[in-house]
Structure formats: C-alpha cells, structure tokens
Design goal:
Belongs to the DNA polymerase type-A family. The chain is of the alpha+beta class. Among the domains are: 108 residues, Taq DNA Polymerase, Chain T, domain 4, CATH 1.20.1060; 144 residues, Orthogonal Bundle (DNA polymerase, domain 1), CATH 1.10.150.20. Helices cover 52% and strands 12% of the residues. Helix 11 crosses helix 12. It is globular. It binds a DNA duplex through helix 2, helix 4, strand 5, helix 10 and helix 13.
Length: 393
DNA sequence: AGCCCACTCT
DNA sequence: CATGAGAGTGGGCTT
C-alpha cells in the first residue's frame, strides 16, 4: 500500500486551496470588522488571545476554565455574533492548512505515499502518517469535498471501498457470547433500533422513536470504550441519575455483556495484561493504582483493547488473504489504504465484479480464518457484514 | 525543540 | 497521564 501510493489531482487541489483560502480571508475580515479597531492585531488562531477576547474583554460565560474548544464556543453562540464566525474560521483553517496546503509537501510524481505504521499502536491497529490518510475529512459536506483530490491513476481504474459494519460491536457479541446481540446481528436487524426497543422495554408493536434510537446508538458505540454514567450524561445532556438508570437497563438487557466486561477486568488484574482473541497482549499497569481515576482508566483499557485489538486482527488476516488471492487470480487490483474497519482498493474496471466478490468473501470469513489458523478453542457465533461502494475519486 | 490546544478520522 | 477507546497534524507559544 505504501509503495503503490494514491494519485492526487493537483489541479483540483489548487482550485480547492484557493477557494477555501478566499473564504477564510473573508471571515477573518468580518471578524475584525465586527470587533473594531481595538482588536486589529488579534490572531484568531491563538487560543490564548481568543481566551482573553471572549472571557475578559467580551465577558462571555466561562464554564470550562478558559477553554475555547468547539463545545465551549457552541454554548456561547447566542451570547455574541462573533462566536459563530470563530467556529467557522477554525474549521476552515484546519481544512486548508492540514488537508489542502499540508499535502503539497508529500506529493511526489502526482502521488502521495503514506506510512502505515505496523508496530506503533497499543491495541494492534495500524496508524498512518506523513501524510495521515486515516483521518481525511468526511462529516461535513464542504469538508468532505477534499476527498476529491484523491483520484485513480487512470480512467481505466476505479476505487472500491469495503467497510465492516459494526465490527467492534460484533466482535464484542462474539467474545461475550451475548445471545441477544448475536441474534440481532445474524438476523440482520437494525442494531440501534433493537437495542432501543430493549432498553426502553417496548413491545414488538410499539414504535421506536428517533430519540430512543439515538440514545441506544450512543450506548452501542460507548460500550466498547467503557462508558461511564458521567460521560453518558454529558453526551446525552441528561442527569447522571438518569444515565445510571439507562446503563442499568442496558446491562439487564444484555446480561452476558456485563459478565464479560467484568471478567475482562478481573483477567487483566490477574495477569497485568489485556489480550485479544488471538492473544495479542498489552501491558496494563494502572489496575492497582491508588488513584480512582488512574484505576478507572486501566479498567477501560482492559475492556477496550481486546475489542479494538481483535477487530484489528481480523482485518489484518483479511488483508493477508486478499493480497494472496488477488495475485493467485491474476486480478488487476491493489489495496491502497486501510482505515481501521475499511479497505480501499484501486481496481481495473473490467475486474471490478470479480474483485468485489473476492474481497467481500475474504473479509467475511476472516474471523473464521483467524480462529482456525491459530487453532483457537472458539467457534464462530456472529456473522460479519461488509458494505461496498465504488467511485472515481 | 517540545508542549499545548484545537482539529481530523475509526 | 485520565471522568467512554485508539490515532496524527498544524499553529501558537515558551524554552
């Protein structure tokens, strides 16, 4: 993947750079005009100066000891019209500096060749640097446009993206042997909706509201991170008491999950390591620390590392098998990037269909292959699901 | 050079 | 070190 690289449309890069730079310039002028002459030397990119402006000069509400991060600013939008513009300025300057101008230094012969660091993360994931191709913007429509600068090497090729759906939650269901969750996955149900149905104790005829589904989704994501009542309350903007009740209800619903998580922490305490299904290990030293905060952090590591790490192991197995089979089948297709639960390949258009089937099949069977290759005493309980997409950039 | 803060992704 | 996990980069600022 490093050697193959990804082609860059340098003309598109130039056009987008100029466009965003103009927008940025415009907002900067608006901000300075709004504030008047006293602030003509203000550097909006300086958190220190911004803190002084917002909390000392403009006397806005200072709730998080001077922090000016997005969350704080969003709470202050109604207090002063400049706040909204500062948020926009931040977004655009990140976009232009990191994802547009920042790329130029990595382009060699119209391509970027990222590094995929293979022995760096604590869990077994890869990381990507110089440039990082695993954190290219996608959420916001304007920001996701930067993805257009990455193109195939000729019009005879397409990109193919294959994503595991809910890989970490499926891994958790597998490892915990959580019967309700396994059943939902294996019947291809909407996991957030079904979780909501159970948390809020609805009958099969009652409708899950979008609010209920949103709450369940936060749970399903947070559970692999060792979510706390405190964090959940903050996320959902509810009281800690309400959060406590929802957590209780969630674990009553998925009782095997609770047992499994407790067991992970006990195991880690005994051997001072957290480990994946395939026995990749991470030393955990915080579990007997006298500080509650540090101990809690150790517990979250003990829970998250086996889940995140097993998911990473599964994709690695898939990648090894895909590489072999693409060659064996003489397909004109190359992996170009891995983004934790997703592979991107550049594929000759005439080989698209065959490659899709091959890659999908290898990704789906990777858990089974991991178990049999390593002779693990484990059976496959949960199906893996893979979604597919195709594009010119 | 190195830390901090802010932003980006799964 | 830290009040859900794992990462990387850029600008400001201090040393």
């Amino acid at each position: 993947m490093e050697k193959t690289g990804v082609s860059v449309d340098t003309n598109e890069l130039k056009i987008q750079t100029e466009k965003i730079q103009n927008l940025l310039q415009q907002i900067e002028t608006e901000i300075l005009n709004m504030l008047g002459d006293e602030f003509r030397d203000l550097n909006i990119a300086s958190p220190k100066q911004l803190k002084e402006l917002l909390f000392e000069k403009l006397k806005l509400t200072n709730k998080k000891k001077g922090s000016t991060d997005k969350e704080v600013l969003e709470d202050l939008i109604d207090e002063h019209p400049v706040v909204e513009k500062i948020i926009r300025h931040r977004k655009l300057s990140k976009l232009v500096n990191t994802y547009l101008v920042g790329f130029n230094k990595y382009i060699k012969n119209e391509k970027v060749h990222t590094k995929f660091n293979q022995s760096l993360t604590a869990t077994g994931r890869l990381s990507s640097s110089d440039p990082n191709l695993q954190n290219i913007s996608i959420r916001d429509e304007l920001q996701r446009q930067v993805r257009k600068i990455f193109v195939t090497s000729s019009s005879e090729y397409s990109f193919m993206g294959l994503d595991y759906s809910q890989i970490e939650l499926r891994v958790l269901a597998q490892m915990a042997n959580e019967k309700h969750m396994i059943e939902m996955f294996n019947n291809d149900l909407d996991i957030h909706e079904e979780a909501a149905r159970k948390i809020f104790k609805l009958s099969s005829s009652e409708t899950v509201t979008s609010d209920m589904r949103r709450v369940a989704k936060v749970f399903n994501f947070g559970i692999a991170y060792g979510l706390s009542d405190f964090g959940l309350a903050r996320d959902l903007k509810i009281s800690v008491a309400e959060a406590k009740n929802l957590i209780k209800s969630y674990f009553e619903t998925f009782s095997d999950l609770k047992n499994f998580i407790d067991q992970l922490i006990l195991d880690a305490k005994q051997i001072n390591f957290a480990r994946t299904l395939s026995n990749r290990r991470r030393k955990v030293t915080q579990l007997s620390d006298p500080s509650f905060l540090i101990r809690s952090f150790g517990e979250r590591i003990a829970v998250n590392m086996p889940i995140q790490g097993t998911a990473a192991d599964i994709l690695k197995i898939a990648m090894i098998n895909i590489e072999k089979k693409l060659k064996a089948n003489n397909l004109d297709a190359k992996m170009v990037a891995q983004i934790h639960d997703e592979l991107i390949l550049e594929v000759k258009k005439t080989d698209l269909k065959a490659t899709e089937e091959l890659v999908k099949s290898e990704m789906k069977s990777a858990l089974r292959d991991l178990i049999t290759t390593l002779n693990l005493n484990e059976e496959v309980k949960v199906d893996l699901k893979v979604s597919y997409s195709e594009a010119e950039n």
